[in-house]
Amino acid sequence: MEKLPKAGLVAIIAVVLLIIVILKSSVVIGAGQAGVLFKTLGNGVDLENTYGEGFHIIAPWNDMIIYPTRQQSVSDKMQVLSVNGLEVKVDATVWFQPEYDKLPFLHQEKGTQYESEILAPAISAAARSVVGRYTPEQLYSSKRDVIQQEILEEVQKELKTQYVIVNRVLVKDVTLPIKIKEAIERKLKQEQESLEYEFRLTKATKEAERQKIDAEGKAVANRILSASLTDKILTEKGIEATLMLSQSPNSKVIVIGGSESGGLPIILGNQ
Known about the structure:
By secondary structure, this protein is an alpha+beta fold. It is about 50% helix and about 25% strand. The protein has helices spanning about 5-25, 105-110, 115-130, 135-140, 145-160, 180-230, 230-245, and strands spanning about 25-30, 35-40, 45, 55, 65-70, 70-80, 85-100, 165-175, 250-255, 265-270. The strands form 4 sheets. It has a 3-stranded antiparallel β-sheet with strand order 3-2-5. A 3-stranded antiparallel β-sheet has the order 6-7-8. The model has no long low-confidence stretch (mean pLDDT about 80). Keywords: Hydrolase, Protease. This is Peptidase.
């Protein structure tokens, strides 16, 4: 009777140990994640394999470190200097993800805090390098897309051998000192007003030229018409008009030899 309780106790202990072993040996890697295996009794990090999504069985004394592999983002507000030494605040967001096949190397060399260890410093260095090439006016107006692309290229170059893929950089805001910003806005307003004045002046000049050309054309046409109207042509046109009037059915009186009409008949009509 005494052996049964001992046997039951052993069985319970065995079951508990088995459950602990199973729990320690089973690993579930979720969607958008990958695992790196650390072999406690072996050579440390398994550099040959990256463990994908799903259920995995490992030795209970080993450890599976799980990393998110989906695209992630990190935002940072940095204070950098422009080309002429003025302080500029840049608010940027970077989209990145770890290189899947190189995840064991990333874990071994950089660790789970790789974002703060290598990514953030690379972004900061790239922003300082790129913004330092431009004046505040360029940063304020039309250079944001160019800056984004250049920061992206700088970060990609910096992290090329660091097992991190940088997909995109977005510069959300570039903040200049208030006085510099106001000065730039005044300058831009003056330039806009100057361009508007030049446009109006050009338009008025073109309209004056058009009117001049139109007037010259009319003057030339009048000179040509005046030169072509000789006395014979006028007499001929008068005869034609007289004949047309004489053929009309209305009653009329025709006076021949009117001196004031250049010798043409004068027709006096009554209805």
